[in-house]
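[Discussion] Sanity-checking designs against the backbone

I'm trying to build intuition for which residues belong where. Below is a structure token string of 415 positions. I'd appreciate it if someone posts a full sequence so I can compare it with mine line by line.
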């Protein structure tokens, strides 16, 4: 690419600034930064887009674009209890030791890499303060459109502050990011203020985006620390990628919502239409269950689904495994039982069905059990490349099907 791009610098009119379309060959650190900014821009949709989608498509509310833009920018039960219990039983001691060292100054600052790469925290404090200020401004200016007053934002920031440590440990040890905020924030707002479905989903968007983005940014900073990438470059890359992602996703979502007729209305759409919005239907159902009806009427002792509280069995299962590990320390395989990881597998429903789980299970057994045992060299070299290839194949086929079939009015097979 460096050999084919023009090398002549371009001048910005009215300024002394110039830039080049040819930055030259990238080193490995620049490649990592480029991958991170692209991944940050396109990996996940902002969670607050669901609020905007169901507001316009299901509740038929007239939502202000700039209020939606501020919402997207500022936001970015059994498994939950099992995760907290697992963290308390297995990681409390080491966490407490690190916590004491961080307050005492500890010896972590004597590490040569920490001293060379240590930077001021005011960048992160500036992001926190500015985003909270914009959030409060958005709530006071456009709060009626999303039923979210300024005080409703506070739980969205407070809950991730409590859960980021145990969920970060789970992500570091298993590679899975479980979003406990999807349930806890809705449960809290539904108990406090039932009858406000959009308020419930808006609060969930803030808590969800705060938690997921925090863990994602921490993992990227960890990678940058290992590769000696300057924190300033990583910080700018993450912020720029998040801004591009929010602007692109909101722009495309707003365009689709305002141009596609009968979007998300299954009864009025043609058979096989790609605009049935399965995820938004799930979010809409959640908003009615947790926010509209409220958990006090759905899940209390006199409610229709009162037995849902048995899902807190995650505490008992985690403690049971921990006790068995202490009773039989020679049984190494028992230590590999991770109750939160097992219970988290069900959080992909209802969008994911039985076919998805069986496909994941079969692929995992073949490559992470049989091939790992017999062909470890091949597994070490190609397993993760194959994983990314399968994901990329789905994305490319979806794009190809949209361009070649959907634009011609062909939405699916009719056997």
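Best answer:
Here's mine. Compare freely.
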């Amino acid at each position: 690419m460096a050999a084919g791009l023009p090398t002549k610098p371009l001048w910005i009119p009215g300024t002394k600034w110039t830039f080049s379309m040819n930055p030259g060959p990238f080193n490995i650190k620049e490649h990592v930064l480029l991958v991170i900014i692209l991944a940050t821009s396109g990996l996940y949709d902002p969670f607050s887009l669901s609020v905007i989608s169901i507001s316009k498509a299901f509740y038929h509310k007239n939502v202000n674009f700039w209020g939606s833009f501020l919402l997207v920018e500022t936001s970015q039960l059994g498994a939950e209890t099992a995760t907290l219990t697992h963290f308390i039983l297995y990681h409390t001691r080491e966490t407490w030791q690190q916590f004491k060292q961080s307050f005492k100054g500890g010896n972590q600052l004597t590490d040569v890499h920490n001293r060379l790469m240590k930077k001021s925290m005011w960048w992160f404090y500036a992001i926190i303060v500015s985003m909270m200020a914009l959030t409060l401004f958005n709530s006071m200016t456009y709060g009626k459109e999303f039923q979210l007053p300024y005080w409703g934002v506070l739980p969205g920031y407070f809950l991730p502050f409590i859960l980021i440590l145990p969920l970060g440990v789970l992500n570091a040890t298993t590679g899975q990011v479980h979003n406990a905020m999807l349930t806890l924030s809705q449960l809290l707002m539904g108990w406090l203020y039932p009858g406000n479905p959009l308020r419930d989903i808006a609060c969930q968007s803030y808590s969800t985006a705060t938690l997921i983005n925090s863990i994602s940014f921490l993992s990227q900073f960890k990678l940058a620390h290992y590769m000696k990438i300057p924190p300033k470059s990583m910080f700018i890359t993450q912020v720029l990628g998040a801004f591009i992602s929010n602007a692109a996703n909101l722009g495309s979502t707003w365009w689709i919502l305002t141009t596609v007729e009968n979007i998300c209305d299954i009864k009025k759409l043609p058979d096989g239409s790609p605009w049935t919005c399965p995820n938004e239907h799930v979010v809409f159902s959640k908003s009615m269950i947790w926010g509209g009806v409220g958990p006090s009427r759905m899940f209390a002792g006199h409610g229709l689904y009162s037995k849902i509280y048995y899902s807190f069995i995650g505490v008992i299962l985690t403690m049971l495994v921990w006790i068995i590990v202490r009773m039989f320390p020679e049984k190494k395989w028992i230590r590999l039982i991770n109750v939160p990881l097992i219970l988290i597998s069900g959080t992909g429903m209802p969008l994911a069905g039985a076919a998805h789980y069986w496909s994941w299970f079969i692929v995992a057994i073949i490559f992470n059990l049989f091939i790992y045992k017999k062909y470890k060299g091949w597994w070490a070299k190609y397993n993760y490349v194959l994983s990314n290839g399968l994901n990329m194949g789905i994305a490319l086929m979806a794009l190809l099907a949209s361009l070649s079939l959907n634009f011609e009015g062909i939405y699916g097979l009719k056997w």
